[in-house]
Amino acid sequence: MTNLEKIAFVGVGRMGANMARRLKDSGFTVAAVYDVHTPAAQELAQELGGTVATELKTVTASADVIITVVTDDRAMKSIFTGGLLTGAKGKLFINCATVTPAIHEWVQQRCQAKGAQSLEACMASSITQARQGTLYLMCGGEREAFDRALPILEKLGTSPRYIGAAGKAAQVKALVNMVMNANTAALAEGLGLGDALGLDLTMLREVFSQTGARSGVLQTDGEDMQNRDHACFFSAAHAAKDSGIALKLAKAQHLNLPLAAATKKQYDRMVQAGLGGLDKSGIAELTFKGRGKGVGTGN
Amino acid sequence: MTNLEKIAFVGVGRMGANMARRLKDSGFTVAAVYDVHTPAAQELAQELGGTVATELKTVTASADVIITVVTDDRAMKSIFTGGLLTGAKGKLFINCATVTPAIHEWVQQRCQAKGAQSLEACMASSITQARQGTLYLMCGGEREAFDRALPILEKLGTSPRYIGAAGKAAQVKALVNMVMNANTAALAEGLGLGDALGLDLTMLREVFSQTGARSGVLQTDGEDMQNRDHACFFSAAHAAKDSGIALKLAKAQHLNLPLAAATKKQYDRMVQAGLGGLDKSGIAELTFKGRGKGVGTGN
User: Fold this and answer.
1) C-alpha–C-alpha distance, residues B233 and B236, integer Å
2) Which residues pair with B157 in a beta bridge?
3) Exposed site from A151, B143, B268, B294, fewest CB < 10 Å?
4) Do the chains contact at A213 and B297, CB–CB below 8 Å?
5) What are A120-178's pLDDT values in tens digits?
6) Class of the B170-286 domain?
């Protein structure tokens, strides 16, 4: 364990912080952390024994590998034009945010121009998996960057998967979330209507699980929809964003995807009603009778 | 095996015929079969050694238990007003078609008025399962009727399930199919967009299966969508009908279900384009670039 590369983090929200904890537990040095929300960075640095960076160039200077877990396209652009590439030669940037696939290509070009490497590492899992090191990681970029990142990726996830060129993993991730979100919206409708008909929802979920209605989201979100337990693992706002990314890709391909569009509309309604911070299972608040006061009836 | 009740069938399409074969294999006497499409009934009667009934009252006279597997509400109404209840006292009618829940209540009332019993036995499986006796059966009606039917149901399915009063099983079935159809439509969109983006679909299906995008229809329909193998197990026309039943239930409850509505629209488009006879997986013909010529682009 002597040749481990030093790590720094940009973006230590719930995902990023748990990934940092996991790597620290696995023997890595988390040399610096940075977050636009400074108190979060301070707390985590104290916990993990690293420093809080207040400038992006300090982050890059402090480590060999910089892991970025920011919120969206805008944040990605802003860190990579805002100092993160200062003194970046020889460094590896691993980018874990779910962003538009084209952003990953743009980041790779900028990194390569500075003599740095970049890898997109899209995560199709959530906070618990981040802490336990069981993330499902889909990677895109140069094969060489993937190989260099592997000792780190293997501590974060069970079997990191190389998908292809930069942006390809983000495409796959967008498709995963698009389908997952639609299945979630459909499940909420099924349980909502079942509830309105006076059916026992525990029975109904069991029948779903034994028939063609079964799905991953039935396992992860079904009981929460029934119990209105919408503590956030993957927010409705993120669901709206991710379905939106997929719909943009579809538009560019002149494809009409009515289910994805209907799903995005539902998650947009949640955001508009101030429910964007609920877990994606909160979409059931739109489809159960007597729930979701003030959410409006849609169209 | 001496006290087995004699059985007759009304409706021997692919499902009904295979159920009859299975019961014959299991030691039951299939005394008579009836179908509006007479040649189908003649062939099956010859195969199973029963008689072809040309009148509904003959079906009822020939057996203790009459299993009906007809296509829709109209067909159910027409057989139960068209002679099937003549001499029905003491007989048991097991009704397996997917029809509007209210029809099952109506059938039960008519049967009870004649001193007969009725049971709805909704099937959430397909032709192969019918032949093998592994149907997933959801039953609604009087408990007594369920108990009487059990020796037969146990040969048709693995663990027949008593759901509740007449119509309740049909409600659950409608919900199962509504969610299944929406998941199918969403999967077709995910694979269609993946294909347009040049992603390897075998890889994409594997990623789906390991992430939140996993579902029953991914297992049953994913590969078929990729290979355009739409040999019919559960037709697009049936999918349109079943989602329609669920949407009517929702309307009566003043619930707005946009995913179910978008799904029905897609299956309606298939029917309008003359593709209603394809398997439900054929919905991928609407979402893959370069497929489905003449299907129109939707809206």
Assistant:
1) 10
2) B135
3) B294
4) no
5) 999 887 788 999 999 999 999 999 999 999 999 999 998 899 999 999 999 999 999 99
6) mainly alpha
Give the fold, CATH level 3, of B6-165.
Rossmann fold (3.40.50)
Question: Which of B259, B270, B297 to substitute to test the interface with A, most A CBs within 10 Å?
Answer: B259
B197–A171: do the CB atoms touch at under 8 Å?
yes
Q: Beta-strand (E) ranges in chain A?
A: 7-10, 30-34, 51-52, 65-68, 92-95, 117-123, 137-141, 161-164
The full DSSP string for B102-150 is HHHHHHHHHHHHTT-EEEEEEE-S-HHHHHHT-B-EEEEE-HHHHHHHH
Q: What is the pLDDT of residues A170-202, one digit of tens each?
A: 999 999 999 999 999 999 999 999 999 999 999
Cβ-based neighbours of B167, under 8 Å, separated by 6 or more = B101, B102, B103, B104, B105, B120, B140
| pLDDT value at residue B292 | 72
Whether A182 and B189 lie within 8 Å, measured CB to CB: yes
- Convert the pLDDT of each residue in B182-195 to its tens digit: 999 999 999 999 99
Read off the pLDDT band of B298 (50, 70, 90). Answer: very low
Establish whether domains B6-165 and B170-286 are of one fold: no
The yes-or-no verdict on residue A1 having pLDDT over 70 is no
Domain ranges across chain A? 6-165, 170-286
The answer to whether A191 and A224 have CB atoms below 8 angstroms apart is no
The greatest distance separating any two alpha carbons of chain A, rounded to the nearest whole angstrom, comes to 64
pLDDT at residue A168, rounded to an integer: 96
Q: How far is B258 from chain A (nearest CA, A)?
A: 6
> Residue type at B55?
E
In angstroms, the CA B231 to CA B228 distance is 9
- Residue B10 tokens read as 């009304």
